Every structure is written in C-alpha cells, then in structure tokens.
Structure prediction request, 353 residues.
Amino acid sequence: MKTIAQPAQPAEPAALDERVARKSPLRRLLGRPEIGALIGALALFVFFGVTADTFLTANAFSTILYASSTFGIMAVSVSLLMIGGEFDLSAGVMVTTSALVASMFSYQLSLNVWVGVAVSLAVSLALGFVNGLLYVKTGLPSFIITLGTFFMLAGANLGVTKAISDNVATQSIADMAGFQAAKDVFASDLPIFGIQVKITVLWWLVMVAAATWLLLRTRAGNWIFAVGGSAESARAVGVPVVKTKIALFMGVAFTAWFSGMHLLFAFDSVQSGEGVGNEFFYIICAVIGGCLLTGGYGSAVGAAIGAFIFGMTNKGIIYAEWNPDWFKFFLGAMLLIATVVNLVVRRRAEVSE
Prediction:
C-alpha cells in the first residue's frame, strides 16, 4: 500500500522580532528620553527671550549657564542613580559636608588646602559607599536610608562646625597655601569670546559627555539600565547588582565632593546650613530631563537639559523683573509640564510607525 504524499504547505512568514525591527528616524528621535525636555527648553528660551530684554545678551547667557552648571553637575550623577532605580536624599547636604571637611581639616591643622581636598574626597566616597552598603544589606528603600543620612549629615555639619570654630561658618582659607591653584581648578573664570564663563560649565559638559558614554557605550551602562528595570532579572543574567548599586551611590558622592570644592573655593568659607533642600532640585532636573521615578529609563543629556531649564527659570524671572518669590511656583509648573510632555512623547513614539 502506497502512501500518497501530501503537498507541502507554504511556510508562514516569520513574525518580525520587534527587537530587530527597523525604526523610522522620527520614531527613534521621539523615543529618546530627553526629547520632551528639549522641546520645553526651546519653548522656555523663546518665552524669556521675548519677555526679558537682557535675557539674550552674552553676559546673561553666561550667568544662566553658571546657574545651570552648579545644579547640573549633581544632576548628572543623580540621573544615573535614578536610572538605576534609586534616590539619594543626602546629596544636598553632602555637598556642604565635603566643603566643611576640606576647609576645617586644612585650617585647623595648618596644611596645604590640597590635603584637605584629598581628605574630603575620601570622606565623601566613604559616605556614598555607606549609603550603598546600607541599602543592599538592609533591603530598605533608598529613600529611607538616605533620608536618615540627610538628617545625620545636616546635624553633624552644624554641630561639628560650631564645636570647632565656635561659629556656624568656617574661617576663610583664602591666604592658605594651595588655595589659588585649587581655585583655578574648581572655581576660576574662563575667557571665551570676550565673555567670562565659570569653569564649572566646562566641567559640567565633560561630566555629561562621560556619563553619556558610560550609559550608551559600556557594559556598566547596560548594568545600570538593567538594575533599574528589574534588579532580580538583572541578577539572574549575571549582572553584579550589589556592586552597581554601590557604585552609583559613590558616583553621587563624587559629584557632591566636586560641587563642595567649587563652593569652598568660590567663597573661601562655608556656611554649615547650606545645601538643605537642594537634593530635590537635583531630582527635579533629572525628572524634567526624562528620568522615570521607577528607574530603568533616562539619560544624562536629559538631566543636563533639565538643569538648563532650571537655570533659565531661575535667572529668567529676575531678568524679566518678576517677583522672585514666584520662582518655586514656576519651577513646579515646569516639572509638571515637562513630565506630561515626556509622557505624551513616549506614548506617541510607541504607536508611531
């Protein structure tokens, strides 16, 4: 008995894997985390350019860039930490702590200020390590861990400063060895096309470029996105979750140290109560720039644009001669608007061809 062969059925076309599907340039652009912030920054720039006569002058733009850089440097590391799924509420007071350590260590022991700078770096990195270690060992939310660190550092800043100097501020270190050299690194002015630009603007751009390269071109960048998306899934595929989380907290501590050095060498003394509340501004810059509060999404470029929006809002109100008491109102409005724009842009990107 012969078996009649059945005619071969035509093979169904394989479904196209969405991971390798080609996206249009518009869809790729709309899918970038910072696109919403960029739209908001352009709109805000035009708005203040029209309403404030001096806003578009070179000197005003230099001032805006400086204001943006002082928060943008911190926003870089805070954005990486948020992409990794965590928060650091001690970042603001840690800036002041690093400045106080460098100032008092150098002054009280009559040492070259560079020694104080080095000691401050070690202390700052240790604080970041402790924050990260407590988080991974206890399993408590980073919000709680760093809130505790925030109160401890705020109290220590005031208590230790008053105990050592009998004042709420440190003594001036302007006449100490190494001060001018350190100021050249952390707080000098750069003449660019006849305009004096603070060196923090340059350092800010360098840090944004380095963070962007880290996120997009290195294995560590993949780890950051992975632990922010799902720490358990990342651990299952071999990502060093503990080391990545601790490194991110230490990254925030490093930029806090750098910002503290700028604070110290720009003004040669430090008020022990400074920095309280600034941690929320850093987070705002990152969120305006497209970072999600849930982690796993965002960019350093977006955080930089968010800081630029912060700087424009801060100085634009003054140049427009409005009441500066309304600054936080406008900042909150910018946060809400940018968040909504980011949400709309992301949704449109998901459904666009």
The mean pLDDT is 87. The radius of gyration is 24 Å. The chain has 14 helices and two strands.
